[in-house]
Design goal:
Elements: H1 14-24, E1 40-47, H2 53-66, E2 70-80, H3 91-101, E3 107-110, H4 120-133, E4 136-139, H5 151-154
Parallel strand pairs: 1-2, 1-3, 3-4
Length: 156
């Protein structure tokens, strides 16, 4: 059907309509940044002499930081004295066990496994407990192992 010459028809393109509608809308809400899950770890060491605890813990913290892990608040603990002290007598180790039991950490970083427990039977007890808590344990020097019976010898 022909259009009468006296009437005018206006056409708007889709981009022009969209531009007008966008100008009337409220500003867009900024996108929420994606957050990666945090791996919270504890640091633990037994140092032979007082005064060097911070040096050892700083090295462990740097190791954790290089892997993108975060040291949970209050979970950088050290004990002073010989490695072969009973785990029940170590205040630092008690703090680590408390953090693990409260599920504040998912991992533990130590200089070597002997810093958890020095004697094989003590280590085996602590290792079993850590596994039941679902923790991973990383030793920055895994060649230093607890002393005593070798695992194969303890089964007989």
């Amino acid at each position: 059907m022909p259009t009468p010459s006296g009437s005018s028809t206006a056409w708007c393109s889709l981009p022009k309509l969209l531009a007008r509608n966008v100008a009337r809308r409220a500003p867009a809400i900024p996108a929420v940044p994606s957050v990666k899950p945090v791996t919270a770890v504890a640091l633990n060491a037994v140092v032979p002499v007082p005064g060097i605890e911070d040096l050892v813990l700083d090295d462990l913290a740097a190791y954790a930081d290089a892997r993108g892990w975060v040291v949970a608040a209050g979970c950088a603990a050290s004990d002073t004295g010989p490695l072969d002290q009973d785990t029940e007598l170590r205040a630092g180790w008690a703090r680590i066990r408390e953090a693990a039991a409260d599920r504040r950490i998912t991992g533990l970083v130590v200089p070597s496994f002997s810093h958890i427990a020095y004697r094989w039977t003590d280590w085996n007890t602590e290792r079993a407990w850590l596994l039941r808590q679902g923790l991973f344990v990383i030793a920055t020097d895994p060649t230093d192992v607890p002393v005593g019976l070798e695992p194969e010898e303890s089964w007989s």
